Amino acid sequence: MVIPWELLVIQLLNGVIIGMILALVASGLTLIFGIMDVVNFAHGELYMLGAYMGTTVMLTTGNFWLALGGSALTIAALGAVVQVTALRPLLGRDPLTTILATFGISLVLQNYALWQYGPVARKIDEPFTGQFALFHLQFPWYRVVIALLSAAIILALWLFMKYGKYGIWIRATTQDRVMAAAMGIPVPLVYTMVFAIGSAMAAASGVLYAPLVGINHAMGLDVILRAFIVVVVGGMGNLAGSVLAAIFISLLEALASLWVSPAQAVIVSFIVLILTLLIRPTGLFVPTPK
Amino acid sequence: MAERWQDEPWARDMWWSGKTTRRRVLGLSASAAGALGATMLVPAPWRAAFGQAKPYKIGTLQPLSGTAAAGGKTALVGTQMAVERINGSGGINGRPIELIVGDYESKPDVGRRRAEKLAVEDQVDLHQGGFLSNVCIACMPVWEEHKIVNMIGVCLDTTITTSKCSRYSFRPFDYAPAQAVAFAPFLVSQLGKKWHIAFYDYAWGQSTRDAYVEQIKKAGGEIVGTTGIPLGTADFTPFLSKISGSFDGLFGIFFGPGGVAFGNQTYDLGLSKKYKIAGDGAIAESTNLPALGEKIEGFHGINRYVPVLDPPLNTPHHKKFFETAKAALKKIDPSGPLPDRYVQSNYEAMNFVKLGIQKSGFQGRKDSMKLIEALEGMEVKESEDFPQGDKTLRKEDHQAFIREFIFQIKGGKHQIVNVIPKEKTIFPPACKFA
After folding, report:
1. Do A253 and B238 touch (CB under 8 A)?
2. Are B332 and A118 inside 8 Å of each other by CB?
């Protein structure tokens, strides 16, 4: 079947944009895993609560950018509280306990959102509504901006990790927890900080994505599975790998949908996951260990 | 007052001063157990009015957590409204209803287990509820095995009253073939002949797609293509982007978050400027409208219920239902949503149960067949019990036929464009009871 090149271009653009949004969600997840060895099943709910918090700030201020910042800060604080109260006591225990704890937290947060905000779907208005002509479509500029903003946030995180004082603390803790503590780095505080940063990134992606998909208490479930696939394919704890994997998987799905049905296209990401686990379990985008 | 609570006299006496003796702990435990027991013994509100009358135990399974919880919560409001009204007006044959609520977490396996529990442990007399079609289908054999009448509240999958029909299950509201019979002539004559259908790619979406393909063709229209989108997809853009070509309208079959994504993204991609956008009424359900905003303006849909007080829904019965439902929904959502079809159909389903029990003299599960026979072919008129309108519960397949509302969204609100009487929604039965 011959596919018109216009459709290929559209799907390439869709793949990159959705990949960048997914990368933002997954980068928080991979950061938390890479440093704390915690598989955070509540990440999707932090994304969802971030979006809800965005509606609250938006209602109060009417400003999208304040909603984005305010939501990220609030959910960062919530993340810190969750880490101190529920995860810190489990440090050093079997990883299964933290998985169960975060799963429990996800259920609590999901039901809290339903109780607090009710069943009506909410929305955050995008800050601007312009479109540009893209073959047979009118493509919204906002989608392009989200991709660029996601890239900027991930880049800022990378710069912080590379050059920031606290970023260096975080990397030192990742490399050798005991030695970092011996050198005077407050390891428990670093963990709390990492969880807060991961939570803030989840919240920011929730606010950015909300104008496109609406807000409901179960919205975290839609993205978390894909985010986990991205993290595994990109290499657990590997930030750059997650970004590449997110774009790779989104592109594959978008392009596959040109030849097969959307339901079959979605299976592509699961096939990639299985192949990764079979052939290269450390992740597709991690350098081969020497 | 002491600065620290530990220094308060009561705290010192009870705990902080180290006076915690075994006797004290036992005493406190006994008091706590007594208080808990006393709470459990406080009679349910209906007990005072009904004395020793044995209640009808009615189970209701709803998704109160998980992905479908938002709809499940509003569905439960409808059931509870009907039960409160029935108990407040003397019950059924002098007996109150005791409602036993089960949450199936939006999962079919959990639903089946909860259904078993209602049947075996709770010994319910009958069941009224069900929201997700796959859960309804998973539970139907349980109701049949235990000879429990199942009055469905929301499940829309066509096969429930066709290939998978059961003598014990009733659907007292519409289904896709009837909606398609009612809507297709309007779509073809008023909006355009050529249609592309986008649908949720699972049981309900597929059966609804098939119904519209058949009826649009029958009405003289043409289907140029279909696009199935998997359940749980947050962003439809890669799939909607593929839709192009020369046709008149894009027809959507989605509900809940899928409806929000469809409405928002057809607008964002400029499809709503290029094509007429129409679809199942669930896309523009009142609980979705705040998330759709002005992007859903001009959408044409069909629904069994629209939350307006315009003719023919300007009756005192409907006004009363509308206000009561609005107040009840305000309790579960601070934004105060308007009632939706889930509230309406569960409310009316419970009232069908009431009429059936009254007509058959049903006392308990042993009388299930009497109740079934009383419900089969039942005709009801627009009333406080049935504010949506007249209904026929067809004997051959236990499928109801009701009037349908074709609406358009204008100014962010539903506006009735056409009312299709129930006689014009009839679709032949395709059920053979085992």
Report:
1. yes
2. yes
A 1-40 → B contacts, CB under 8 A:
7, 10-11, 14-15, 18
Say yes or no: B11 and B61 in one domain: no
Q: Tell me the per-residue pLDDT of B129-155, one tens digit each, with 9 for 90 and over.
A: 999 999 999 999 999 999 999 999 999
Q: Which residues of B108-119 are buried (b: 16+ CB within 10 A; e: fewer)?
A: bebbbbbbebbb
Are B268 and A212 in contact (CB < 8 Å)?
yes
Chain B residues inside the 8 Å CB shell of A217:
69-70
Q: Which residues of B touch A48 (CB under 8 A)?
A: none
Q: For residue A256, which residues of chain B lie inside 8 Å, CB to CB?
A: none
**Total number of domains in chain B:** 3
Smallest CA–CA distance from B74 into chain A, residue: A119
Which residues does chain B have within 8 Å of residue A258's beta carbon, measured at their own beta carbons? 242
Overall average pLDDT of the A274-279 stretch: 92
* Same-domain pairing of B17 and B74: no
Instruction: Domain of residue A226: give its range.
Output: 5-279
Verify that B72 and B154 share a domain, yes or no: yes
pLDDT tens, position by position, A72-102? 999 999 999 999 999 999 988 888 999 999 9
